[in-house]
Automatic annotation (TrEMBL):
Residues 64-74 have a biased composition (Polar residues). This is DUF7455 domain-containing protein. Residues 52-63 have a biased composition (Basic and acidic residues). Residues 11-64 form the DUF7455 domain.
Length: 74
């Protein structure tokens, strides 16, 4: 083992917040192993403390403000 972190996969609609069950946009990979998933609301609430504990944070909450691309009509 090299100790390098494996690339994280993008969060999908199937990934749910461990706190409330909403769609997860933040993944906290814990230094002792395991991960926690949070919606944007709960992620913002806990992200600072998780970083202080050494968690690696994957934050995809910016996707909430993206404008969908219109699809072509058939």
């Amino acid at each position: 083992m090299t100790g390098a972190l494996a690339p994280t996969k993008p969060l999908t609609a199937v990934d749910r917040c461990d706190r409330c069950g909403a769609q997860a946009y933040i993944r906290a990979s814990l230094p002792m192993g395991g991960e926690l998933l949070f919606c944007a609301h709960h992620g913002r609430r806990h992200i600072a403390a998780l970083r202080e504990k050494g968690a690696d944070i994957q934050d995809e909450s910016a996707r909430l403000s993206e404008t969908p691309t219109p699809t072509a009509e058939r």
